[in-house]
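user: Please review this fold.
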Amino acid sequence: MSSSEDGPQAPTPTMYCWRCDDVIRPVMPWPHWSKVWWAWCGMIVVITIVSPVMGSDYFCMIPTMMGIIVAGGPIYRFAHEKPTCSVCSAELDPSRRAGTGVRPKSKRSKTETQESPAS
């Protein structure tokens, strides 16, 4: 299935990369990780409430509860992941969109900057 068959897609926002010193198209994390995080938090509340009932079945339910609890770490990390630069993989600040606080690129080349005397 090609991308033209998928229908129109929302354009990727441009962001400012501090390492590349340029405006780039970032690699955005999956937008629904925060919903998965809150669903996990709700599941922990349910597990806490029904833990006396689950405690009667030590063979199956206790390992299942432990697996759900351990899964919270990666889910938290994915839910709080920031966009990254598609060129250098630097973590970008979501509040700095392209055009806000972007310094204009210098017209001088890097060799001219290195050869100029320090003041």
